[in-house]
Amino acid sequence: MSFFLDQASTDFNPMAHYNSEWFLNVLKIDTPKSLTSLESLWSEMSVKQVSSWLNHQGVKDADVATDQIKRLLNAKTSEQMDQILEEMDDVSAYCAVRIIHIRIHLCDLDKMAASTHKPTKHLRGRSMDLSAVDNTGGVLDTKLIIQSFLDYLSYTHNNTTNSNLPDTMAKFRELLSNINLRLVSTVHPNETERSTNLQHYDYILEKYIEWKRLNESLTGMPSQASEYRTRREKLNQLRRDIKAEIEGVFQSDQMRPNPISVESEGRRLMQRYSVIFNVVPFQQKFIKHLAKEAYYLFIASVLSDKPEFVSKFSELYEHTKHTRTDRLHTIKKTLDSLNIATVVPRVDMPIIKFGTWKGGDRDGNPFVVASFSNQTFIEQKLFVLEHYLNIVTQLVDKITPSTTQIEVSDDLLESIRSDRALFPYIENVKGVEPYRAKLRYMQEKLQNTVQRCTEVLKKAGETTRPLMSSTLLGPTGYNDSKSLQDDIEVIYRSLIKNGGKSQARSNLQDLKILVSTFGIHMCSIDFRQTSEKNREAMLEYLQITQHESVQNVNYSKLPESEKREILLKVLTDPKLEFNPWLIPQMSKITKDTFQSLLVFSDASATDSNSVGKFIISMCQNVSDILTTMVLMRLTKLLFIDSLGNIKSNHDVTGLFETIGDLVNAPIIVNDLLNIKLIRHHILQERDARFTVMLGYSDSVRDGSSLASDAFVARTGLELKRVKDSINKQHDTNINLVYYRGRGDTLPRGFGGNIKKAILSQSITTLGEDHTEQNRYLRRYSSESSALDHLWNIFSAHVSAVVRELHPDWEVFQRHFEFFGRLSNIAWQDLVRGEKGDAYFSILDKFSILPVLPKCRFASRPVCREGVKYDIDNIRAIPFSMDLAQMREFTSAYYGTGTAFEVGIQLLNNVSATYKILQSIAKEHGAEQALSTFESNQKLTKQTDSTHDKQIEDGLKALIERFDSVELGLKSVAQLLVDSEKYPSAIELLQTMFTNYAPFRYSIENKEMALGVRSKEIVDEYTREANELQRKVLKGTQDEADLTTKWLTKIQNKSTLDKSGPGGRLYNTPELRLLHKLQGRFLNNFTKQSEKGEVARKRAEELSIYVQMTILAVSEGLGFGG
User: Considering the entire predicted model, what is its pTM?
Assistant: First the structure.
C-alpha cells in the first residue's frame, strides 16, 4: 500500500481510480527486464537456490545457515572469516564454496562479454585488423598484419642488391606461400571443470553476448513498433535462458561420477571444432585481402617519386571520401589508367591448419591404445564430413542460377554428366539448374561417405585391426579431399566466369577454404611415444626375427656412433619387413606399439593428411630418431626406394624437454642432418623442412622458469646456426620448423597472453606448430573469442617473422643463459636431496597431490611411474596444479632472485671474478682456456677486492654445470669482457628488458607469478608444517622477496604489479576465503581419516570437491592447470 501512497495525494481513492476500466486499459509497452550483469542476476537468484540446496542437505535451520553464509561472503578481513567459520558446520561451509565457485565464473564471464561485445560489431569489417595491436610491451608489441607485410616488403626492397619491384614481389609471394601455422590440441588432462558445467558457462556467455547486442539494438527504436515488441520478448526469453543455465550449473555436480575416459576427453575437444569451422573461412579471406592491400600500397610507395603516378592518383583521390577503401581503389584505378601491369599475390594455402594428439599421445597414458586410435581417425572423418554435408545441403537451395538466364562452363556440364551416370536413381534434378544438380550429386556422395563411416565406427573402438581403409567406398563417395575439392572448384570457376562472382565468394568459398584446411580427415593426428618404448619395441622385434644386426650384440651398451651405424643398416635393409603373425609373441607394450603404428599406417595409406608428425619424447640421441624411422619402415609408414632413398609423407621429430635435452638439441640435429640419407629425404620428400620440437613445461619443472626461458631461446638460436652451417656446407636450402610444446599456465612457461608468448621467441620460423591445451581450447567456446584467438596468433606470428634482432642479441643471450644457469643451481638445491624431500612432503601433506588420482578429471596417471612424488617422476601438469592450488608457484619464480643477486655481483666486480676463474683453471689444469683473455688489462689488473664465499661457491658450481670446465671458464670470461660495453650489470639487464623479447617475457612472467603467489594463503595451508618444512617455506619466501627486489630494479620501477594473467587481481577477499575453506577441509580430512572408513570417505569427498573447485577457479582465472 505504501507504494501507491508514495505516488498519490492524501485524498487519493484507490477504489475509484483502480476500477474495471483502468484494468482493461492497455498501458505503455514495458521495457525488457534488466540484466546489468551475470553476477547481479545470480544475486537475484541465489537466496532461493541456496535455501533449496541447504534444505536438500538436511540443514535444520536453513535461515540461520543462509545468514552465516551471507556474513562469511561479505567478510573483508581474515579475522572476520575465521570467526564466522568457527560457527559454521561443514555443510554450510561446503555451500559457501559452491557459491564462490559460481560467482567467480560468472564475474569472469561478465568481463569476457564486456571485452567481446564491442569488437564483434566490426569483426566482419576491415577494421578488425586493429584488434591485433598491443602497445604495452615494447619488443612484445604486435603490429598490424598489413604493417608487418609492408615492413617485409620495404626491408626486402631496400636491402637486396640490384632489387627491383618484380623481384621484391616474387619474394613477397614466396613469403605468403610458406608462412603457416599448425595448432595442435594435446587433449592433456588438465581441465578440472566438468565438461557439463563448461557447456553451461559457454551457453551463458553466448546468450549474454546475444542479449547485450539485441538490447543495444533497441536504442532509438519506437516502443510502439512491432519490431520493438518482438525484440523485447526475445530479450526476456534470453534472460530466462540464462537463468536456467545458471540454475543448472549450480545444481550440477562438480565432481564427475566416474573417472573420465580418453574417449570423453576426445569428445570434449571435438565440439570445439563446430566453432572453429565457422571462423576459419573468414580469417583466411581477410588475410588474403590484407596481402592484396599491402601489395598495392607498396607499389604506390615505390611509384610515389613518379610525377605521372602522383598526378593521376591525386586527381582521382580528390573525388573520394578519403577512406582506407577509397585509397586502395584509387591506387588500382591509377595503375590501370597508366597501363602498369600488376600480379596480385595469391594466398591459396591454408594460413592455419590443425593437428591433435588425441588418439596418438602414448607418452604415459596407458589408455591410448590401438583401438582408440582407430576410433579417433574415423570419428574425426565422420565429424568433418557431416559438417560439409550440412553446408552442401544448404547450398542446394542457395546457388540456383538457371541456364535460361546465364551461361555455365563446359567443365561443369561434363562433371554433371559423369555424376548422372553414377547416380541414375536421383530423379529430382533439374537440367536447367546445373549448379543445384551438381550440388545434389555432391550431397549424395557425402551422404554415402558419412553412412559408410558411421558403419565402420561401430567396430572401431573394439578392435585393433586397422579400419580407416574400410571407410573408402569408390566413386559413389569421397575417398580423398582432392575429389571433393575438384567438385567445389568446378562450381566455383563456372560462377566466377559467368557472372556469379558474389555467389562463388560467399558460402561456396567458405566450403572451399574448409576443405583445403581440414580435408576429409579434420585434424592430422601426431604419434608420440618415449624413446625408451620405441627402442624396446624395435629391439624386441629384431630379436624375435633374429635379425643379424642384433645377433651377439648388447645394443644398450654400444656407443652412440655404433648404434647409428647399425640403425642405418637396418633402415636401408632391402629384406626388412614386418610379420604381423609375430604380434602374439610380443610383450604387451611392444604389441600395442606395433598395433598402433599399423593403425596409423592404414590411415596414412587411406589419407596421408590424417596422420601428422611422429614425436619422440625424451629424445637424447640421433639413434632415438633413427629407431623411430625403423619402426615406421616396418609398418609401411616409411619406405626405401630402389635407389636406397627414404620415402615418407610424415616428419619425425625429437622432443627436447629438459634443460640438458635443450642444450644437446643443436648437436643432435647437426649430426642428423650431416647424414646424407636423412638430408636427401628432407630435401626431396619433406619440402626441405625439418621439424624440431622444443618442450617448455618439463624444462620449467626440470630446471626452473628462468633457466627454461633462457635455454629455449638459446636452442632456437643455435638450431638456426646449425641450419645455416648445414646449408652452406652441403649447398642445400633446408628450413627449420619449430614445434612449440608450450604449456598454458605460468608454472609451465605461459604468461596468459598468446601474442606476447609468440613474440618472445628468439627465432620464429616461417612455419611453426604450437600445442594448444586447456586455456587455449576454451577460447574456441564462441565464434567471437575463437576468431580473436586465431587472429592474435597469426598477427603475432607475422610480426615475429618479419622483425629483426637487436644488434647486441648475442651479448644479451649469453647473459640470459648465465643467469639461467645460476637459477637452475638454486632450483636443483630446493627440489633434490633432503630439502627436496621436505619440499615434496609439503605438497604431499597440504596440497591436492595425494588425491589427484581420485579426482576423476584425467585419464593419464599423475606420475611417470607408480606414485613416487619427486621432481623426476611427477608430471609437469599435476605439479603445476599443486602449485596453483596452494598459490605457491615455486617453479615460476624460484632461483630468479638468487641468480640476479649472485650474478650481478660477479659481473660488477670483474677483476675479483676473474681471479676466481684463474683459481678454478689452475685447480683443474685448464689454464689454456683463459689464454685469450690474459691480455685484457681490465680483467687481469691487480685488486684487493674479493667476493664472499657464497658468491665464490656459486661461481664454482656454475662452472661445473657446463659440459666442460674449459667451456665454463671461457663463457664466464667472455661475459666479463661483454660487461665493458655497459656501465653496470643492472644497466645491461635493463637494456635487455627493453630490447630483447625472450628476456622481457621471462621477467614479466616472473612478475605475474609473484602477483598470484600469496604468502598468507601458503601459511594458511601449512599451519601444521614441521620444522624442516617451515625452513623450506621460509626459503621460498626469501626467494620471492629477493626476486621482487631484482625485478623492480630491472624494470626500473618502485613496486611490482600485483596482477596476474589477464590483469586480474588475486588477493581478493573472495579468493582468500576459498583457500581458507580448502584449508579447513584438508585438515578435516586428515583428522577424520583416523575415525573410521565412513567418516574418512565423507571427509575425503568434501576435501576433494573443495580442492577441485580451487583448481577449476584457478583454470578459469588463468593461473592454474
Answer: 0.89
